[in-house]
Amino acid sequence: MTVQPSAERREFLDVNGIEVIYNHVILVLKGVSLRVDEGSIVALLGANGAGKTTTLRAVSNLLHAERGAVTKGSIALRGERIENLTPAELVDRGVIQVMEGRHCFAHLTIEENLMTGAYTRKDGRAAVEQTLEKVYAYFPRLKTRRTSQAAYTSGGEQQMCAIGRALMANPKMVLLDEPSMGLAPQIVEEVFEIVKDLNTKEGVTFLLAEQNTNMALRYADFGYILESGRVVMDGAASALRENEDVKEFYLGTGGEGRKSFRDVKSYKRRKRWLA
Amino acid sequence: MLYRENGQFKQTYRSDLQIFPVLQDRIALYVLLAVAFVAVPMLASDYFFRAVLIPFLILALAALGLNILVGYCGQISLGTGAFMAIGAYAAFNLQVRFDLPLLLSLIGGGLAATVFGVLFGIPSLRIRGLYLAVATLAAQFFTDWFTNRVKWVTNDSPSGSVSVGGLSFFGVAVETPAQKYLLCLAIVCVFALLAKNLVRGAIGRQWMAIRDMDVAAAVIGIRPVYAKLSAFAVSSFIVGVAGALWAFVHLGSWEPAAFSIDRSFQLLFMVIIGGLGSISGAFFGAAFMVLLPLLLNYVPHWLGLPLSTATASHLEHMIFGALIVFFLIVEPHGLARLWLTAREKLRLWPFPH
Amino acid sequence: MGFFLETLFGGLMAGMLYALVALGFVLIFKASGVFNFAQGAMVLFAALAMARFSEWLPKLLGFESLLLANVLALIAAIAVMAVLAWLIERLALRQLVGQEPIALLMATLGIAYFIDGAGQLLFGSATYKIDVGMPKDPMMVLEGTFEGGLLLSKEDLYAALISALLVICLTLFFQKTPTGRALRAVADDHQAAQSIGIPLSRIWVIVWTIGGIVALVAGIIWGSKLGVQFSISLVALKALPVVILGGLTSVPGAIVGGLIIGAGEKLSEIYIGPMLGGGIENWFAYVLALGFLLVRPQGLFGDKIIDRV
Amino acid sequence: QADQFVPLLVYRTGQFAPLGIPWADGKQDYLKLINARDGGVNGVKLTFEECETAYDAAKGVECYERLKDRGAAGFDTQSTGITFAVTDKAFADKKVVVTMGYGLSQSADGTVFEWNFPLLGSYWTAADSIVQDILKKEKGSLKGKKIALVYHDSPYGKEPILLLQKRAAKEGFELSLFPVTPPGVEQKSTWLQIRQQKPDYVLLWSAGVMTPAAVREAQATGYAREKIYAIWWAGSDHDVKDIGAGAKGYNAITIHNSAAKDKVHDDLKKFVYDKNQGTAGGGEVGSLAHTRGMMISMLQVEAIRAAQEKFGKGKVMTAEQVKWGMENLDLTADKLKALGFGEIMRPVKTSCSNHMGSDWARIVQWDGAKWNITSDWYQADKSLIDPLVKELSAKYAADKKITPRSCS
Amino acid sequence: MNASTMTETTALTSPTPTGRKIGEVILEVRNISLRFGGVKALTDISFDVREHEIRAIIGPNGAGKSSMLNCINGVYAPQEGAITFRGETFKHMNSRQVAEMGVARTFQNLALFKGMSVLDNIMTGRNLRMKTNIFLQALRWGPAEREEIAHREKVERIIDFLEIQPFRKTPVGRLPYGLQKRVDLGRALAMEPQVLLLDEPMAGMNVEEKQDMCRFILDVNDEFGTTVVLIEHDMGVVMDISDRVVVLDYGKKIGDGTPDAVRGNEDVIRAYLGTTH
Ligand SMILES: Nc1ncnc2c1ncn2[C@@H]1O[C@H](COP(=O)(O)OP(=O)(O)OP(=O)(O)O)[C@@H](O)[C@H]1O
Ligand SMILES: Nc1ncnc2c1ncn2[C@@H]1O[C@H](COP(=O)(O)OP(=O)(O)OP(=O)(O)O)[C@@H](O)[C@H]1O
Ligand SMILES: [Mg+2]
Ligand SMILES: [Mg+2]
Fold first, then answer.
1. Residues 6+ apart with CB under 8 A from E177
2. What percent of chain E lies above the pLDDT cut of 70?
C-alpha cells in the first residue's frame, strides 16, 4: 500500500531549508526541508507549536497575512520557484490549502461556501456542478445543511465545509492542516478514505499536517516529524510506524502496547531528538 | 548589550507586577520625567510650549481616555469631541456660576462628561462595532447642537463663544506658558498612572475580555453591563478633563467648533496610530499627530522650497495620509508596538533573533 | 396636508441623494469588509475630476459642445477613478491583508487625507461647475388637489431615479454572479478567500473602481447642485446614519435607510425643530438611526452579526 | 531687522477655500505692490509669510504663536473663530488683531478691546444697513412684516441676532430664526419652512457651501431671490457664479463698492502682474474677496505709515506703534483717491475708543452675470449699535477683569 | 499544587472509577428542546450528572453536543425543558449566574481573549472572586494590590500545573493551537468550579499531549472533586476516563450509560462509532 519516494516518481514540491520569521523577531522554522512527490500523500507530524502550520503557510504563501516571511531557503513546485507567487496564482497551479481552524465564510451559506471554492475553475458550470455533487456525496451532512449560514453550523460541519470547498477547486495538490480536528471518528475515517480515493483515482497529491498520527501514518506514503521548527525524523510511513520513539510519543503504543489514558502516570518530560 | 534584563530576577510577585519590570526602563522613565519637569520648562520657548507641548499633553490625555474605551474595551467611539465639549462647558459653568477653583472645575467637568458618557454608552449593551459608532456620533452631533443652541450652556453669551481667564491652581497663578505646561504635565502624569493601574488590574482585564470575546467573558462571569459602562465612565471622565484643559488652558476662549467631529476623528487617529490598548500609545499617537503636521509644514521652509501655501498644505495632507498608511503597514498595532519590537530587537542585539 | 406631503417628498428625495453616497460605503464594505472612510474624499475627487475635465477638454481639443465635453469628461473621470483604485490596492490594501478591520478603517482615513490633498493639488481648491443639464426649477403637481400645488424638485427626481437604477444593478451583481459571491467571501475572511484562490488584488481593484464610479455619480449629482468644492466631501457625514440604519452590508438597505433618514430628518426639523430652537435634523438623523439599531442591532437589512462559541 | 513683517493667516484649503484663496491673494498682492511700486513704506520693505489655518481655530492659534514674534503688523485671522481664540492671547502678548468686517462686534470699543480692530463694520452694522435697505423698499414701515434669518449655526452666524432683535422691536417686524447646521449641504427643511411661512425677506448669514446650497434651494422652492439679503461673506462672485441666472436678483451687502476697477488695480497690473509677480491666478483680481484682501493690507500699511509719521519715518514699527497707527487712521476721500482706493471705499477714521473707523455699507445685486450696486451708502444706526457695543464690551471687561482704559 | 506533588498524588490514585466517591446528582437536564428556526438542535434531552463524576457527551458532528453545553451555561435559551443545578431549577439562566454557581467552561472553537497574555487570560478566571472597587484599583492601594498578588499566586499555580510557564507573558493569539486549548482550560480552572464543561479539549493534539490533557482532567477531578462534563471525539479518551457517557444523534439522545454499555449499543455503533471501534 505504501509507496516509497523513488526516482521514478516525479518530484512535485521541494522545500529546501526554509527559515520563517514572524513579526520580524520570532524565528519559527529553522531550516525545514521536505519533498513531496507527485501523486503521493505526505504527512507532517509534530507536537503543538512544532511549526507544521507554518510550513504549510510557507508553501501556500499565506504567511504574509500573518506578518511572517520566509527569510531563507527556497520552495519549488515542479522546479518552478514559487516563493513570490500570490496564493491565487498557486491555486491556479493547482495547489490549495485547507486552513487550520476551518475559516468558513461566516455569512455565506454552506453551498455558497463550496461554490466559492470553484472560483478559479474555468471548465464551465456543468463541471462545477458535478464536483459539487461529488462533494455532497462525500459529505452528505453538508447537503442537509446547504442553505444554512456557515457560522451557524457545528464545528464538524464547518470542517467538512472547509475541506469540501478546497476540493471544489479540482486541485492537483492539497495542503491539509489538521483535517481530522473536531470530526467524529467515522467521519475522520471517511475523510482519510476520501484522501486516499482522490489520491489513487485522480492522482491528487496531499501534504497533511496531522495530530492524529495513527491515521496519518496509516494513509500516508511518507512522513516528516517536526520538532521546534526542525525536521527531526523522516521516512516511509511504514517505517515510522515501527519506530519505537514514534510509537511512544505519537501513537501512544510504546512499550507494552496501547495504554489506557487513565493509566498514564504523570506528565512526561518530552524526549527530544534534538542534540 | 546595555539593554539586557539578564540577572534581574524577581523574587516576589509584587516586583513582577511593577509597571516597568526592567531596571533600564525604570531608569529611562525617571530620566524622562526629570527632563519633562525640570529641563523642559527651563529650555523651551513660548512657541514650543503653546503650539507643541501643551496641545500635545492635552491631546495625549484625551487619547488616553479614548484608548480605554476603544483600545481596551473595544467600543469604537466617534464622539470624543462631544465628551470633551461636555467637560469643557461643564467646567466653564462651574467656574463662572459657582466660582469654583480650577481643580474642582476640571473634576466637575470630568464628572459631567462621565454622566454623559455613561448615558450614551448604554446603547453599547446592544449595539456593537461600527454600528456603535452611530451612537457616539449621535452624541457628537447632539452636543454640537446643544452647546450652540442652549443659551445657559454658554452663560448667555450671545455669539455662543465663551472664554475664561485668570487661571490659578491652589492660589498659584497659571499664566505663563511654562506654568500651563507644568499644570498639564502634572495632570497627565497622574492620569497616566491611574489609567495604567486600572488597565493592568482586574477591571482592565474585564474590559479587554469584553473587547476580545464578549460571549466567553460572560461565561466566566464578567458582567458586560458593568464592564462596558465602567469603560465609558472612566474614559469619558478622562476625556472630559482633557476637554476642560483644552478649553481653559490651551484655547482660553472657544466656540463649539473647537470640539467638532474633526477633533473626534483626530483623537481616534491618535489612538490607532499610537497603538490600541496601550497607555504609551496615547502619547506616541498624540506626538505623531501634533508634531507631524508641524514638521511637514516646516520642512519646505528649511529646504528653502518655494512652495505656495496651498501647495504645501495639499502636499502636507498627502504626506500625512501616506504616512498613516505606511505606519499601519509597518505595524498595524501602532507606534507603541513598533517601539516594543524595536526594544525586543535591542534586547537580542547583536543577534538577529 | 399639502405641506406635510411636500415635506415628506422633499425628505424622501433628499434621502435618495444620501443613499447615493451611502451606496459607496456599502459596496466597499460588503465586498472587502473595509469601512471606507475615504468615500467622501472619493466623491470629491471624482467630482473634481469630472468638473475640471469638462472644462479642460474642450479647451485642449478645441470643441464647443457641452454634451461632448460631458461625455469625454465622464470617461476620463472613470479612468481616473480606476487608476486611483489600482493605486489604493497596490500601495495600501495589498499590504494590509488579514489585518484587523480597525487597522483597515484607519488606513482608509489615511487614504482620505491623501485623496483630499491630491485632488485639490491636481484640480484646485476653488469652486468648479458641473453642468450636466439637471433641471433646477421646481415643478408643481396636483395643483387641483392642494392649494398652491405640491412642489417637487425635478433635479431630485432624476437623482432618485439614478439611485434606484444603480441599486438594482448592484444588488443583482452581488447576489447572482460568482464574482459577487467571491466579493462577499472576501469580506468575511481575507485569508480564507486567498487560500482558495480568490485573487484579492484583482477583486479589490474591481470593487474600488465600482466604488469610485458610484462616488462619481454621487459627485456629479451633488456637484451640479452645490458646485464642486471641498465641502462636497462632507456629504459623506449625511450618508453615515443612512448606511448604518440600512445595514452595512445591504445595497437595498442604503436606499431604504436613505428614505427613512431623509423623511425623518425633514419632518422632525419642521414639526419638532421649532420647539427645540431649530437645527435639529443633523443629530436627529443619528438618533433615529440609533433608535432603529436598538431594535435591530445589525441595521434594517444588514447581515446578522454573528457571535457563536 | 530692517523689514516690517506682516503675518498672513490664510486658508487656502478646506471648506472655505473658495473665499479664502482670493482673500489671501489680495492681501499678498497689495504688499507686493507696495514693495514694487514704493519700495516699501517710506523705504521699509514689507516682508510676509503665510500660515495655513484651514479655518481651524487650533491651527489658527498655532499660526499665531508661530508668527507673533516675527514682527509687528496686525493679524488678520480671516475667521471669527480664530479671532475668538487669539483675542485674549493678543491682549496679553500685545499684538494687533485686525478683523475687517468680521470678529466680535463689541470689539469696536477700543477702551476694552485695546488690540482688536474690527475695521469698517461688524455684523451688527451689516444687519442694520440691510434692514435700512428693506425699510426703504417698504417705504419706511416694516410693521407686521416677517423677516427670516437663515444662519450658519455658529458664533459667526449668530452675531447679528442681537441687533436684529432690537431692530425688530423698534420697527415692529417679526423675526424668525432658521439655524442651519454647518456645513449646510442640505437645507431642504429650512427652505420648505420658508416656503410655508412666506417671510417677506430672508437675511442669509451663510458661509462656504451653505451659500450656493441656500440659493439653489430657494430656487427649488421658488422663493424670490430678490427677497434675499446676504452678508458680505456670502456675496462674492464664487458664491453665485456657477448658479448664474438662477441667482438673479440675489442681494448682498458690501463694505466697498463692487467696483473692480480703480487705480490700485491698474498699479497692481503694471507693477506686479505684468512682471509675473502676481499671487492670484485667472480672473480673481477684481473679485470682491480679492479686493477686500487688498483693502486689509492697505489699512495695515496705512497704519504703519501713520505710526511712522509719529515715531520716525523709515523705521520698523513695533506692535505698540502699529496699534497707535491703527488707532489714528485718518483716510480721507482724497487720501484714498491717492492710494488708488477712491472708488472702492469710503473714508475711515479711527480713534482710541472707536476701533471700527467706518460703519457705512451698501447693497449689491447679482444680475445673473455680475454684481451691480443697487443702493446708496447706509450708515448703521448709532443709537442702536453703540449701546449694544458698550453693554457687551463692559460685560467682557467684567468677565476678564479688565479695567477699561480711558481714551480722553 | 504543582507538578511534582501532582505526580505523587496521581501515583496514588487508583485507576478504577471506584477510587473516587461519586455523589448525588448535581446537575440534571430535563426535556430540553432547542430550535434555531427550522433546525432542531436538541429534542427532548434529559440526563443527569453526579457529583465528582466525569460525564462524557459524544455523538456525530452536528448532533447538538456543543449546543447542550451552551444551554447549560446560559448562552442559549432552550425553548423547552429545565435544568436543575444543586437542587435549584431554572428554565433559563444568564451566563453570569451560572458562573457564580460554580460552572466553568471551555470552548470548542477557542474563545480566548486574543489580545491578552496567557497570564491575563487566566487571571480573568479569577474575576468573580476579586472584590476591590475601581477606585482602589486605580490607586492600586493596599487591598487592591494584596488581592492582585494573592490571585496571581493562585494563577501561577495553575500555570505550573498546565506547564505553560514559558508563555506566561505571550499574547495567546500567537500560541499554537494546542497550547491555546490548555490556556482555555487554565482559565476555566482558575474559576475553581464545581462543574467543568469541556468542549473537545483535546482536538488537535497528538497522543502525548492528549495523555497530558487526560492527566490534567483526572487530577482536577481527583484532587478537587470537580465534576467534569466532557465532549470528545477520541473514543480512546472517552472510554478510558469517563464514568458515564451520553450519546446524542441529530439532537436526540440515543444512548446513556457506562462506556462499556454504550460501546455495545447498536444505535450508537450505527450512528457514531462506525465499525472500526
Ligand atoms: N502569527 C504568528 N505570530 C507569531 N508567532 C506565531 C504566529 N503563528 C505561529 N507562531 C508561532 O510559531 C510556532 C509554530 O506554530 P505553528 O502554528 O506552525 O505550529 P503547529 O505545528 O501548527 O502547531 P499546532 O499543532 O498546535 O497547530 C509557535 O511557537 C507559535 O507560537
Ligand atoms: N446559533 C445557532 N444558530 C443556528 N443553528 C445552530 C446554532 N448553533 C448550533 N446550530 C445547529 O445546531 C446543530 C447542533 O450544533 P452543535 O454545535 O451543538 O453540534 P455538535 O454536536 O457540537 O457538533 P460538532 O461535533 O461538529 O461540534 C448543528 O446542526 C448546528 O448547525
Ligand atoms: Mg497548526
Ligand atoms: Mg461542537
1. A48, A53, A100, A101, A178, E110, E204
2. 91
Q: How confident is the model at residue E10 (pLDDT cuts 50, 70, 90)?
A: very low
Give the pLDDT score at B129: 84
Q: Are B113 and B83 in contact (CB under 8 A)?
A: yes
Tell whether ligand 1 has an atom less than 6 A from the beta carbon of residue A66. yes
How far apart (Å, rounded) are the C-alpha atoms in residues B89 and B244?
7
Long-range contacts of D393-401 (CB under 8 A, 24+ apart): D393/D106, D393/D107, D393/D109, D393/D111, D393/D112, D393/D113, D394/D112, D396/D106, D396/D112, D396/D113, D397/D112, D399/B96, D399/B163, D399/B165, D400/B163, D400/B165, D400/B166, D400/D88, D401/B165, D401/B166
Is residue E14 scored above 50 in pLDDT?
Answer: no
On whether the CB atoms of residues C290 and B134 are closer than 8 A, the answer is yes
Q: Between residues A67 and B280, which one has the greater pLDDT?
A: B280
Owner of C-alpha cell 473536531: A182
Average pLDDT rounded to a whole number, residues E110-130: 90
Angle at B10 between CA B4 and CA B15, to 5 degrees: 105
* B and D touching (3 or more beta-carbon pairs closer than 8 Å): yes
Residue B25: domain span: 21-256
Shortest Cα–Cα distance, E144 to chain C (Å): 32
Alpha carbons B57 and B50: distance in angstroms, whole number = 11
Helix H, strand E, coil C: the string for C263-284 is HHHHHHHHHCHHHHCCCCHHHH
At residue B199, the 3 state secondary structure works out as helix
Q: How far is the CA of D182 from the centre of ligand 2 (A)?
A: 51
pTM of the model: 0.91
Instruction: Find cell 484532587 and name the residue.
Output: E223
Give the Cα separation of D200 and E249 in Å (integer).
79
Query: Which of C92, C112, C309 has its CB closest to that of B215?
Result: C309
Q: Strands of A173-177's sheet, edge to edge?
A: A95-98, A173-177, A205-209, A41-46, A222-227, A230-236
pLDDT band at A2; cut points 50, 70, 90: very low
Delimit the domains of chain A by residue range: 39-61+89-270
Q: Say whether domain A39-61+89-270 belongs to CATH 2.60.40.1400.
A: no
Nearest ligand to residue E205 Cα:
1
Instruction: Provide the domain count of chain B.
Output: 1
What is the pLDDT at residue A271?
Answer: 44
> What is the pLDDT at residue E213?
87
Q: Is D62 on the interface with B (CB under 8 A)?
A: yes
For residues A173 and A94, the answer to whether their CB atoms sit within 8 Å is yes
Question: What pLDDT, on the 0 to 100 scale, is given for residue E19?
Answer: 52
What chain E holds in terms of domains, given with CATH numbers, is 20-102+193-276 (3.40.50.300), 112-192 (no CATH)
How many Å apart are CA A152 and CA A148, to the nearest integer?
7
Q: Does E77 touch chain C (CB under 8 A)?
A: no
Q: Is the pLDDT of residue D263 over 70?
A: yes
Confidence of residue B9 (pLDDT cuts 50, 70, 90): low
* Residue in A with minimal Cα distance to C190: A65
Distance C53 CA to ligand 2 centre (A): 57
Can you read off the three cell numbers belonging to residue E68?
A: 447542550
Phi, psi of C185 (to 5 degrees): -65, -45
Ligand 2 atom closest to the CA of E61, numbered from 1: 26
Q: Is the pLDDT of residue E233 over 70?
A: yes
| Distance between B202 CA and the closest CA of chain E, angstroms | 7
pLDDT tens per residue across span D81-134: 889 888 888 988 899 999 999 988 899 999 999 999 999 999 999 999 999 999
| Shortest-distance ligand to the CA of residue E41 | 2
B330 part of a folded domain: no
User: In the structure grid, which three cell numbers stand for residue E270, read together?
Assistant: 450505527
Best mutation target, A152, A261, A265, to test chain E (most E CBs within 10 A): A261
pLDDT recorded at residue A264: 67
